[in-house]
Amino acid sequence: MGLKLSPNATNAILELLPKELPPSLQSKPGNLYQVLSRYPRDGVGQIVHQTRWSQKGIHGCFWQVTRTNLKLEGQHGKAWGRLTWKGKMVSPREEPIPGSLKYNWMSGTS
User: Fold this and answer.
1) Is the pLDDT of residue 25 over 70?
2) Residues 6+ apart with CB under 8 A from 7
């Protein structure tokens, strides 16, 4: 049995919420920093990919995030990681992740 709210209670709750959710609560693709800010430790350890890779049919590619420095509630910052491209690790050492603001990113592999 679920809790049923009256229309008045539902409207009152909706008025308390911000019109636009902060980046840390959104589940849609976003810039790399918005995606990473949704996770504990600012996304360190997460696997992320650019959405355009999947759209182009490039699979098995991702960055594993090793270090972050996020600013402005996940709108800007810096991120480092190791790139795996088509199943093969390309970067043996951590390196800056390029295209952080330019492209849309999502969690997981392409």
Assistant:
1) no
2) none
Which tens digits make up the pLDDT trace of 31-89?
Answer: 999 999 999 999 999 999 999 999 999 999 999 999 999 998 788 999 999 999 999 99
Residue 2 is encoded by which pair of tokens? 């679920």
Residues 6+ apart with CB under 8 A from 49: 61, 62, 63, 105, 106, 108, 109, 110
Q: How far is residue 61's CA from residue 88's CA, in Å, rounded to a whole number?
A: 8
Half-sphere exposure of 35 (CA within 13 A, CB side): 25
Spatial separation of the C-alpha atoms in residues 28 and 4, rounded to whole Å? 28
Give residue for tokens 């759209």. Answer: 55
